[in-house]
Design brief:
The complex is a heterodimer of chains A (407) and B (264).
Chain A lengths: L5 H22 L1 E4 L4 E4 L1 H34 L8 H6 L2 H21 L2 H26 L8 H18 L3 H20 L7 H21 L1 H4 L20 H27 L2 H11 L1 H6 L4 H27 L9 H14 L4 H17 L7 H15 L21
Antiparallel strand pairs in A: 1-2
Helix pairs in contact in A: 1-2, 5-10, 5-13, 5-14, 5-15, 6-7, 6-8, 6-13, 7-13, 11-13, 14-15
Chain B lengths: L4 E12 L2 E12 L3 E5 L6 H8 L7 E6 L7 E2 L5 H7 L1 E3 L12 H8 L8 H6 L2 H20 L15 H13 L5 E5 L7 H16 L3 E5 L3 H7 L2 E6 L2 E6 L1 H6 L1 H8 L7
Parallel strand pairs in B: 3-8, 3-9, 6-7, 7-8
Antiparallel strand pairs in B: 1-2, 1-4, 4-5, 9-10
Helix pairs in contact in B: 3-5, 3-6, 5-6
Chain lengths: 407, 264
């Protein structure tokens, strides 16, 4: 049975006091600068204390419940745990209609909602592509990349500059943006071949900053912080589209892009290359001892991940018709990383859900925009505590032998 | 038995700063034989494995691999993946599986260096890639059957019991189609029954014509399994010979086994 012991109680009390102490400056003191007054909002302290106390007790109860469930499961030996998504995909009666409904929803979305909503959804879908791309690097190959946004910038600026100087259209720039980003991925990959974990993260972070600073300061090349405007939108056989039609067109283009990304990444993950990437994450030394060339496979991971960022970058430049370096700050990288971590490392469905949640929620909860970062932090911390594998845990592929004599 | 050496090691030295971990080691492993490398803790056995598999670059000496019917190849300074491609596959003293991948996937990773599918092939899944993948799965399943893990093919590797993980490591090494299999303490931590299963597994692998070099502390296993034994101490080879010779060699008894040990 769940019991609240004295110890739980004391812990909760200490937690509450800590929270009251930590939030005291922002929650209690309010300085009124016009009248030079300090307002002491003591009632807020009470709320903070009460909330922290209850939350702490609930966490303790949840932990007890979880531990008991685990020990029960250990007793019932042989019943391996099946995650909810595995059950979902293994039950076609549920999975098929749900997938069909989802597809239908995204298909008729522009007919049902305003252009504003369509615009937001297009942005969210672009983050799905970005998340899936970063997922190859971070989720699959296990290389923590904090400068992912640099490749996004490379793609966007490739299109913007080509368009400005040579009038290159969207469809020609799309593959070029991807290739450019892949080259930059390899460029970053070479110096970091020997690095892992935190060290790799720091170098990639620096790489992101370098690209950003170059774009900001090399005005002759990138037009500096002023950015590049009047970028052509994606064309459709030279047909002039109205504003609304353009937005809808962009929406469907992005949908197509997402589908392509899912298709390609799904196939890659379940291939020889994908397995090698997974193996690289699991154990680098064993990976090499099994005949996998570490250099090639790491560069492949960086290049593959960067390609999607480059493609998304071209989309971004075309959609906004204007770009400047401020769209490519570290905050963007952190955001994309959050999508991958929240959704579930290495899981395609997880990343899609993660992107939609993290991009759409702030848009619809504009009223609480002051607390956005607070909520973000809270969500991520609770994810780490309660579900470190992400919303959707990664499922391993099972293979069937062609002459299936095996049980 | 075929008397051609498949692996010749000549004057192998490995220095770590001022410490000479391997000192002019000479070994010859004949094709189709089970050789064992024994020695007290810290004698340099694992260092030797690491030199051989490309994790360390030896300071001096020659490592020559002679595939039957082909000119011999120098292995010094090759990267680990190249050594594996050349035909040496190893297991690790402390198991190094890919814990989050399934049993079959672990074996499929071993197939990596014998297959060719590239990114484009993976995306398009052309007939050649599909055929290659099918063959891989078949080979993988056959290997799993051989080590007795076929029924667990879809299980995640970290959930396997200890002995099964050891056997999976061997299956994974075999998947690289080696000429010489290097086993680093394969019986470490196994109970007597698991050890017995391992002995018959190693024998069945040898029966298929593979050469095996093993490092082992379990004397019973070494004596019953090996055709030839090399003894090293402080990085030097102090004795070699068939088990019966090594067993009674006073130098070995003194250096390695202590004076009072009596093998039952």
């Amino acid at each position: 049975m769940n019991v609240i012991t004295i110890k739980n109680f004391r812990n909760a009390l200490v937690t509450a006091l800590w929270f009251m102490f930590l939030t005291f400056p922002i929650m209690v003191i309010k300085v009124n600068t016009t009248e030079n007054l300090i307002v002491w909002r003591w009632h807020n302290l009470l709320y903070v204390g009460a909330t922290a106390f209850t939350a702490s007790l609930l966490t303790a109860l949840y932990r007890q419940y979880r531990d008991r469930k685990r020990s029960q499961q250990q007793q019932e030996e042989g019943t391996s745990r099946v995650s909810w998504n595995e059950r979902f995909f293994n039950t076609p009666a549920i999975a098929r209609p749900v997938c069909a409904l989802g597809a239908l929803f995204f298909l008729v979305f522009p007919l049902l909602f305003s252009t504003y909503q369509v615009n937001i959804m297009t942005t969210a879908l672009m983050y799905v592509v970005l998340g899936l791309g970063l997922n190859i690097v971070v989720g699959v190959a296990g290389l923590l990349n904090l400068g992912y946004v640099a490749f996004y910038a490379v793609g966007a600026y490739t299109y913007a500059l080509l368009n400005m100087h040579y009038g290159v259209g969207f469809w020609v720039a799309l593959p070029l943006g991807g290739i450019m980003a892949a080259l930059f991925g390899i460029l970053l990959g070479f110096p970091v071949l020997r690095l892992r974990g935190d060290y790799l993260a720091i170098v990639t972070l620096g790489f992101g900053e370098i690209i950003l600073l170059v774009l900001k300061n090399w005005s002759e090349f990138s037009q500096g912080p002023g950015g590049i405007s009047n970028i052509s939108r994606p064309g459709l056989f030279n047909i002039q589209l109205s504003m609304e039609a353009t937005l809808n067109y962009q929406y469907y283009l992005t949908i197509a892009m997402v589908l392509l990304t899912i298709f390609v990444i799904n196939r890659l993950q379940n291939s020889r290359i994908g397995r090698a990437l997974f193996a690289l994450r699991e154990d680098e030394i064993a990976c090499q001892a099994m005949g996998i060339d570490k250099t090639t496979i790491k560069l492949t991971a960086f290049a593959l991940g960067a390609t999607w960022a480059g493609l998304a970058g071209v989309f971004f430049a075309a959609k906004n018709a204007y770009i400047n370096p401020d769209s490519f700050t570290f905050l963007e990288s952190a955001m994309i990383l959050c999508i991958v971590v929240l959704g579930g490392m290495g899981s395609i469905l997880g990343v899609i859900i993660g992107a939609l949640v993290l991009i759409l929620l702030p848009e619809y909860l504009r009223a609480f925009s002051d607390y956005r970062m607070l909520a973000f932090g809270a969500i991520l911390v609770s994810m780490m505590i309660f579900r470190p594998q992400g919303i959707v845990a990664n499922i391993r592929q099972s293979y069937r032998s062609s002459k299936d004599g095996a049980p | 038995m075929n008397m051609e050496p498949i692996l010749s090691v000549r004057g192998l030295c490995m220095d770590f700063g001022g410490i000479r971990a391997l000192d002019k080691l000479d070994l010859r492993i004949r094709a189709g034989e089970i050789a064992a490398l024994i020695g007290p803790n810290g004698a340099g056995k694992t260092t030797f494995f690491n030199c051989l598999t490309g994790i360390y670059t030896p300071t001096a000496g020659e490592l020559l691999l002679a595939p039957p019917g082909q000119p011999s190849r120098r292995l010094n300074g090759l990267k680990p993946n190249r050594v594996t491609e050349a035909g040496l596959a190893r297991t690790f003293q402390n198991i190094r599986l890919f814990p989050g991948m399934t049993v079959l996937e672990n074996v499929l990773i071993g197939r990596h260096c014998r297959t060719k599918a590239k990114i484009l092939g993976a995306i398009l899944r052309d007939p050649r890639t599909r055929r290659e993948e099918r063959e891989n799965v078949d080979i993988g399943m056959a290997l799993l059957k051989k080590v007795g893990l076929a029924h667990m093919a879809d299980e995640v590797a970290k959930n396997l019991p200890y002995g099964a993980q050891r056997r999976l490591e061997i299956a994974r090494a075999l998947a690289t189609e080696p000429l010489l299999l290097l086993l680093d303490e394969p019986a470490a931590g196994m109970n007597p029954q698991e050890t017995q299963e391992l002995i018959s597994l190693i024998r069945s692998i040898r029966a298929e014509g593979l050469s095996i070099l093993l490092i082992e502390h379990d004397m019973k296993l070494v004596m019953s399994l090996s055709d030839y034994i090399f003894v090293v101490d402080y990085g030097r080879k102090i004795a070699e010979g068939v088990p019966e010779e090594v067993r009674i060699n006073p130098v070995v008894i003194k250096a390695y086994l202590g004076e009072e040990v009596d093998y039952a």
